Amino acid sequence: MEDIALLVLGILISIMGVVNCTGNISTIHSYNRRKVKEEDIPRYGKVMGIGSLIIGLALIVAYILELTTNLPAELIILPAFIAGILVLLYGQFKYNKGIF
């Protein structure tokens, strides 16, 4: 139970991902969404939501696997974190024309 923060963080990030997937990008910093065109908001939200979901679900799965097996969480978190960040960066560069 010492890794409960892993589960809580995973749930919070996953909820943010679902909110973003629905087209509500208010959870994304304003400087990260200021250049997104109005017609691209739903697609931008979906890409950013998918990236957040990848990271959030990986944290949840890592927590569950740590409880049930002796596998270290890093085996799941690190590759998923890299994949999630790459998806987030893709969305930033495609729809916001840069990170800021």
What's the gist of this structure?
The protein is mainly alpha-helical and 100 residues long. The protein has helices spanning 4-21, 30-33, 41-68, 74-95.
Q: What topology does this entry show?
A:
Elements: H1 4-21, H2 30-33, H3 41-68, H4 74-95
Helix pairs in contact: 1-3, 3-4
Tell me about this structure.
The chain has 100 residues and is mostly helical. The chain has 4 helices and no strands. Helices cover 72% and strands 0% of the residues. Helix 3 runs antiparallel to helix 4 (74-95).
Order of helices and strands: HHHH
What fraction, in percent, of the residue positions are helical?
Answer: over 70%
pLDDT averaged residue by residue = 90
Distance between the termini: 38 Å
**Low-pLDDT stretches:** none
Strand content: under 5%
Task: Round the Cα radius of gyration to an integer and report it.
Answer: 15 Å
Please count the beta strands (DSSP E, at least 2 residues each): 0
Largest sheet: none
Class computed from helices, strands and strand pairing: mainly alpha
**Overall spatial form:** elongated
Specify the oligomeric state: single chain
Q: Number of DSSP helices?
A: 4
Observed structural traits:
4 helices; 100 residues; elongated; 0% strand; mainly alpha; single chain
